[in-house]
Amino acid sequence: MSAPPFIRRISSTALLCFAWFCAVSYAHAESEEKNYSTAILPLLERYCYDCHADGLKKGGVTLDDHRDAASLLADRDLWQRIREQIDFRLMPPPDEDAPDDSERQKLLSWIDDAIFPVDPNNPDPGHVTLRRLNRNEYRNTIRDLLGVTVNVDDILPPDDSGFGFDNIGDALSLSPAHLERYFDAAETALDLAIQIGPMPRERQNAIGERLLGDGQPRDTGRFLSSNGMVTTDFKVPRSGLYRLEVTASGTLGGDAGPSMELHIGDQVLQTWEVTAKQSSPVVHAHEWKIEQDGKLDLSISFTNDFYDETIPDPTRRDRNLWVQRIELVGPLDGPPPPKPETHHRIFGKSRIASSKDPDANYAARIITAFAKRAFRRPVTKDELRRFHDLAMKMADGDIERGIRGAMVAILVSPSFIYREESGPVAGSPGSRSLISEFALASRLSYFLWGSMPDERLLDLAAKGQLRKNLRSETSRMLASEKSSSLVTDFVGQWLQTRDLDVITPDLKLFPQFDRSLAEDMRAETEHLVAHVIRKNLPLDTLLDADYTFLNERLAKHYGYPDISGEEFRKVPVASPRRGILGHASILTLTSYPTRTSPVIRGKYILDNILNTPPPPPTQNVPPLEANKEQAKNMPLRQQLEQHRSDPACSSCHALMDPLGFGLENFDAIGRWRDSENNHPIDPAGTLADGTSFAGPDELLKILREDKNDRFLRSATSKMLTYALGRGLEYYDRTAIDQIVSSAKKDERRVQTLIHSVIDSVPFQYRRNTP
Known about the structure:
Layout: H1 12-17, H2 19-25, H3 30-47, H4 49-52, H5 69-73, H6 76-87, H7 101-114, E1 131-132, H8 135-146, H9 176-193, E2 203-207, E3 212-213, E4 216-218, E5 221-224, E6 228-236, E7 240-253, E8 259-264, E9 267-273, E10 282-290, E11 294-302, E12 306-307, E13 317-329, H10 341-347, H11 358-375, H12 381-394, H13 399-411, H14 414-417, E14 418-419, E15 432-434, H15 437-448, H16 455-462, H17 470-479, H18 484-494, H19 515-534, H20 541-544, E16 547-550, H21 552-558, E17 569-572, H22 584-589, H23 598-609, H24 636-643, H25 647-661, E18 675-676, E19 679-680, E20 685-686, E21 692-693, H26 696-706, H27 708-724, H28 733-745, H29 750-759, H30 761-764, E22 765-767
Antiparallel strand pairs: 1-14, 2-13, 3-6, 4-5, 5-13, 6-11, 7-10, 7-13, 8-9, 8-11, 12-13, 15-22, 16-17, 18-19, 20-21
């Protein structure tokens, strides 16, 4: 039997055929060999030998060339791919003779037993890689530890990703650049959180667009090339002594610089000659007592314009004034402002001193409490001694200054930057041990909150009671506002809505698109996911919710009337707008800047909804855009049909294109349409397993009904990957099976899924070393 062009690649069926050679040399029991000979080999002979044996080499694969089974069995990633495609019915192709359900199950069971043997009664929890905090986790941890928010994206290098997430331990390397930047981040955070010495007086500033009046506006002020006035206003909290600081520079005219006057109403309070060059502006200050609180209107005037082009020195021909910044400082009299609450959060509002050694005891108390929270575990005596000695050496007469120095050291310590867990316990190969309660607290908090454990979690861990209260604590944490991290970080990477930050459709073709609309698109999806988690709804609600969350801008984009304002609210929607695949966020992410892409959309569904990624594209195949001129007026479906007429392209496109064409009624920014280039949209398709649909309604029905179990398993795999911070291995199949089973028993409810991930062996245990 000859094979169609679809087989012209290393297909899953061809790879499955390698099982014959693997079984011959696989070191299994005789019963396994007998099972292969009697049950598996006949299936391989029937479904793949016609194309991959006896001299035939479809897709570049021939079974006659392979005699070393050990080399094939070593590549478990390859066999995992084989299993997924057989299970997904991607192979054999629909027009070839295919195994029935019982035969297919035999193949799957043999692969599981021979290639991926696992002991469901003693599952392997997998390896644990020491994990560095990524940028989001670092920001959140600093927020919860110090009470301040640091824009770490401007300080720390970007994080690498693995398996679709940026919290994967093996991908989170630590470079010399990181070490220096962590020091900068620690200094920045502590500068915001604590104030050593008296608090500075309040400072209000006007810069850039806050400066109004004459002259030319610039990013950092206003440039006056002729006599004129710059105005602004400040809020005076009370009567008292204030200082005005004007940062200005100018150019000389003749022998003098520009004259600058400070006006309050009609009164001139101060006049300065500005001699500073534009490259080196200086501050001009004036102090006076303001008798009344409220709004203060003031102006800065340029009063001595000069221009003489006959002067030989070009730097003295034109007198100009550049007012860059105006600041009001004060009130300067009376007591200084109180220190920030974050300072008192660390040092306390009152100091309990010891008559014996007040500074030493004070430092020990503050450092012990701070280090325990920063390290998310008890601190050793040796650690405390080192930090305490450092504080005393750096105090220089001010113990709080010394404590701050020790805090910098704590925040650049590996015990803070890394999520430490106790080392593996020595034991027999294949054995496992429960992780400590402090490690469990960290795993739990960084999974659900993307941040450090709070005092309650650490207190329960210290008492050895966290596991006993795990379900109630998980529910408490899911009810917290901090659980929004699970949506923005986990879901934002699983569904890729984070990528909307860098997506830019062609504005000539889609002038409606801007960053505000992109933010609304992402917010819609995040609101729906947060609602499903908060209400503990079934997971498949994400695929078929008959409501969504819209504000006025996004509603207008969709064509929904009678919705006004920036606030998002729950709005009923009809199919095919139901579920996340009808969201503009997903539809825009899966398009090119100039048009839709059934290929990208189909791949997105395979990757993120069904967890069955297609094989990578064949090299040296020209992209569809290469034929843009010839196909300018051709329907996209016809263009793709020509593209996949190449045998090297057909197999992959047969997997992806039908799924993508089912969403083709949505344009490149998620609006509904019935035609393209004056051609009616044809959204019908036939999936690789032979299932046909007429349009988006039927496709979505297939996904939420026939493929529901696959969606649940896909979400489970993604969530477990994110929770563990590592890629999943074949031995994780037992954990996934148990999580899926638990969720299905409770109508696939999302919180049950989350509880089951937390209860799983990989989350609770670690592998012992032999």
